[in-house]
Amino acid sequence: QKEVEQDPGPLSVPEGAIVSLNCTYSNSAFQYFMWYRQYSRKGPELLMYTYSSGNKEDGRFTAQVDKSSKYISLFIRDSQPSDSATYLCATLNSGGYQKVTFGTGTKLQVIP
Amino acid sequence: ETGVTQTPRHLVMGMTNKKSLKCEQHLGHNAMYWYKQSAKKPLELMFVYSLEERVENNSVPSRFSPECPNSSHLFLHLHTLQPEDSALYLCASSQDGAGGWYGYTFGSGTRLTVV
Predict the structure, then answer these.
(1) Min CA distance, A98 vs chain B (Å)?
(2) Using an 8 Å Cβ cutoff, are A58 and A74 in contact?
(3) Nearest neighbour of A98 by CB, restricted to B4, B43, B100
């Protein structure tokens, strides 16, 4: 079982739709959660970073963490063609030697 | 230049060649990383340098050899690679030492093709 599972997609949605991207993780030591966005022919860029269970909002983006079910989500409201990219979830364990574990990424296409 | 710069952007090499990938960060970060990104696989951590000292070598074959001469520069020396080594090689830096507490800043990567 992979430590972080993510549906690779691709996911195609019309412009303006609400997008839901999801990951599950298996290790309870993971305490910090991140979403990276990777445009084609570019490296990943940090989009959002959250620690606790609950929601964190930043503009059109909302990161949600449910530690009880080991489930993390990224919601994009009013999706735009410029949101078309691959979205990678990532986790960081607490304590000891910190290690970042990435999901495989979900490719999103927002159609005008 | 700002951020993390990687050169070359594309590289095609034969299995007997020797080549090097270069990474430079202009952010004042104190940790640098090499990651391998292959299709449909998670990012694979290869090497971590914190304050110019290697702190992790993630069981990477010896045909990959990293070098970190100072906190701003990182190299990945390649020799006698295999076709399965074809991938996107990403360099990253972070400000918090090994671990990525505040997230990584990635370069655009080197697309490597081994023929």
Answers:
(1) 5
(2) no
(3) B100
What are the DSSP calls for B30-54, one per residue? SEEEEEEE-TTS--EEEEEEETTEE
Give kind and range of the element (H or E) at residue B5: strand B4-7
| Residue B44 near residue B34 (C-beta atoms within 8 A) | no
Give yes or no for B41 touching A (CB within 8 A). Answer: yes
DSSP A8-33: ---EEEETT--EEEEEEE--TTEEEE
Q: Which residues of A touch B33 (CB under 8 A)?
A: none
B43–A43 CB contact, under 8 Å = no
Out of A42, A100, A103, closest to residue B100 by CB: A100
Task: State the Rg of chain A over Cα.
Answer: 14
- Chain center to CA of B41: 17
pLDDT per residue of chain A (112 residues) written in tens, 0 to 9: 678 999 888 999 999 999 999 999 998 888 889 999 999 999 999 999 888 788 999 999 999 999 899 999 999 999 999 999 999 999 987 665 667 889 999 999 999 9
pLDDT in tens, B30-63: 899 999 999 989 999 999 998 878 877 778 999 9
Nearest residue on chain B to A41, alpha-carbon basis: B108
Contact A46 B105 (CB under 8 A): yes
| Tokens of residue B16, six digits | 């007997």
3-state secondary structure of A15: coil
Using a CB-CB cut-off of 8 Å, the residues of chain B touching A42 are 108-109
Prior bond to B8 cis, omega within 30? yes
